[in-house]
């Protein structure tokens, strides 16, 4: 199974398009082409494409906050007029910015409606579904398409659409956001189409005033040439206000991301320091272990030459029985196992006392193993405690 075939993740969703016939392929390829041309923060992002079986799979940005239809029905209708107006301006501004990206490429969406306006995880508006979008090329009009209640008069009277057809659809969406009511909708589909064809819309409420009211009325002109351009709508006072709000919001989001990234870098540094510390401890332990395993070549420190002689790792005590001898070893052995061999030659009939002490032992002047030590069972080896008085 292809790793991308999970239909939805936290950030992505897969849209399948039939990819069998030449007609299927043409439609699917055109949608991909449109998406590639209009990529922006105001449109749903196309992440990847791949074929699987008889389908072309589009990996799209997943907009987890739903569509505008849900927002209108479940949230906006419960808000007061002032709140709905502000949402209308802010949502409307971002829809217009997305439309502007399309129209700069001479692309007509042809199916703008609340269901095709999505909200991402941050609540930002994105235009989606470019399956019916079409480039104008050199023609003045293209064939009509889309959802009946949002199609303009020219779609019914002339079966054609142009750039200004999207302005008509935007006008309906904008009024729906603010009022919760479709301005042309009637009791039946037939009556609704009749209202659209004649440009007969329900009276706008009194709280829609000034320049924005005039622009809405112009958006619903049957004559496409009398409808305002996107730039004209964006230049009105309320849209300028919405633009400033959007800029401030984007600025705050960037600052928030910078702080999060900075925090992430600090966290990374803490983790890296901990890792290096652990690595250093492991290396130190390894070195200590190696030191324990490496044999040492001791050097004997003899207080007086008459006590004996040393060669390499051997010390030979003098044959004079009257000489007591204390020999130190350099380096001091701090860890590991020490083996000491005592060999007696030509000493039959004599007893000897031999002691082994660590560096903590301190002998009183004139004292030796026979004085401070503990005699072993064989009377020849004396084992000393760690500290001697």
Topology diagram in text:
Elements: E1 12-18, H1 22-37, E2 46-52, E3 55-61, H2 68-74, H3 81-104, E4 107-108, E5 117-119, E6 125-127, E7 134-135, E8 142-143, H4 153-157, E9 160-161, H5 163-179, H6 189-198, H7 210-219, H8 230-234, H9 237-293, E10 299-301, E11 308-311, E12 314-317, E13 328-330, E14 354-356, H10 369-372, E15 374-375, E16 381-383
Parallel strand pairs: 14-16
Antiparallel strand pairs: 1-3, 2-3, 4-7, 5-6, 8-9, 10-13, 11-12, 15-16
Helix pairs in contact: 3-5, 3-9
Please identify which CATH superfamily of the domain at 68-235 we are dealing with: Transferase(Phosphotransferase) domain 1
Number of strands: 16
Tell the overall outline.
rod-shaped
* Major beta sheet summary: 3 strands, antiparallel
Which class do the helix and strand fractions yield?
Answer: alpha+beta
Can you give the mean pLDDT?
Answer: 81
Cα-based radius of gyration, to the nearest Å: 45 Å
Provide the CATH top-level class of the domain at 68-235.
Answer: Mainly Alpha
Q: What is the CATH topology classification name of the domain at 68-235?
A: Transferase(Phosphotransferase), domain 1
Order of helices and strands: EHEEHHEEEEEHEHHHHHEEEEEHEE
Helix content: 25-40%
Strand order of the largest sheet: 1-3-2
Ends: how far apart?
Answer: 81 Å
């Amino acid at each position: 199974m292809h790793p991308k075939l999970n239909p939805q993740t936290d950030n992505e969703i897969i849209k399948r398009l039939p990819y069998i016939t030449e007609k299927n392929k043409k439609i699917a390829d055109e949608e991909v082409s449109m998406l590639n041309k209009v990529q922006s923060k105001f449109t749903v992002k196309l992440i990847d494409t791949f074929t699987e079986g008889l389908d072309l799979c589009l990996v799209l940005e997943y907009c987890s906050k739903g569509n505008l239809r849900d927002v209108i029905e479940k949230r906006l209708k419960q808000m007061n007029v002032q709140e709905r107006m502000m949402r209308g301006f802010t949502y409307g501004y971002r829809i217009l910015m997305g439309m502007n990206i399309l129209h700069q490429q001479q692309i007509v969406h042809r199916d703008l409606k609340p269901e095709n306006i999505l909200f991402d995880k941050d609540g930002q508006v994105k235009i989606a579904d470019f399956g019916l979008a079409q480039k104008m090329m050199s023609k003045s009009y293209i064939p009509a398409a889309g959802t009946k209640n949002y199609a303009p008069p020219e779609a019914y009277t002339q079966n054609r659409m142009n750039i200004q057809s999207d302005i008509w659809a935007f006008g309906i969406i904008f009024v729906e956001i603010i009022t919760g009511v479709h301005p042309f909708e009637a009791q039946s589909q037939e009556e609704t189409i009749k209202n659209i064809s004649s440009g007969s819309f329900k009276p706008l409420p009194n709280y829609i005033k000034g320049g924005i009211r005039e622009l809405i009325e112009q958006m619903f002109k049957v004559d496409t040439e009398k409808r305002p351009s996107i730039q004209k709508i964006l230049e009105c006072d309320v849209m300028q206000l919405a633009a400033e709000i959007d800029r401030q919001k984007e600025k705050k989001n960037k600052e928030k991301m910078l702080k999060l990234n900075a925090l992430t870098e600090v966290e990374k540094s803490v983790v890296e320091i901990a890792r290096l510390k652990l690595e250093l401890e492991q290396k130190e332990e390894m070195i200590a272990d190696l030191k324990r395993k490496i044999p040492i070549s001791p050097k004997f420190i003899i207080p007086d030459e008459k006590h004996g002689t040393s060669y390499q790792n051997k010390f030979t005590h003098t044959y004079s029985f009257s000489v007591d001898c204390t020999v130190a070893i350099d380096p001091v052995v701090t860890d590991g196992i020490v083996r000491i061999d005592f060999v007696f030659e030509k000493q039959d009939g004599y007893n000897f006392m031999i002691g082994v002490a660590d560096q903590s032992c301190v002998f009183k002047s004139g004292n030796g193993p026979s004085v401070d030590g503990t005699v072993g069972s064989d009377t020849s080896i004396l084992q000393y405690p760690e500290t001697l008085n």
